[in-house]
Amino acid sequence: MSNPFLSFSLKSIVLLTIVFSIHLFILNSLELPLFENRIILSYIINLILVIAIFGVLYYLKNKYKSQLGFLFLFGSALKFAVFFIVFYPFYKLDGAISKLEFAAFFVPYVTGLILETISLSKWLNSIDETNP
Fold first, then answer.
1. Is 105 in contact with 41 (CB distance < 8 Å)?
2. Most buried one in 23, 54, 76, 115, CB count within 10 A?
3. What is the mean pLDDT of each run of 10 residues along the chain (132 residues)?
């Protein structure tokens, strides 16, 4: 695919689907509940945010090329804001965040962050090579 946004979107969907399957496999192997702790919502929201943030950066790449790093950091802050708005109140109902609750949000968050970082790095390097 020559369009970085479409390629990234497809990679994100495939990678997070694989990680979600592995996550469920591990939970099942440990005989833990599979679909508690808003795990499905967490993967979906993280996927949407990862694609949306990359899309915004792709859209703004020419106008704000020198500020893309800061915009990326803003996207990461946005993801944490979503966590505190959507997930944190639910997770803190019992007074503590369990390891399973933490993993339900953190695993897709970190997976998306790693994919975003690697993809944006490659993409920005290719922009620099084509536009000296």
1. no
2. 54
3. 84 96 94 86 94 89 78 86 85 82 90 90 68 52
Helix (H) or strand (E) holding 19: helix 4-29
The number of domains in the chain is 1
In a domain, 84, yes or no: yes
- 95 DSSP 8-state letter: S
Instruction: List, in order, residues 6 or more apart from 77 with CB less than 8 Å away.
Output: none
- Global confidence as pTM: 0.84
Structure tokens, 4: 């970085």
| 132 found inside a domain | no
Q: Return the DSSP state at 132.
A: -
Is 103 a domain residue? yes
Q: Which amino acid is at 68?
A: L
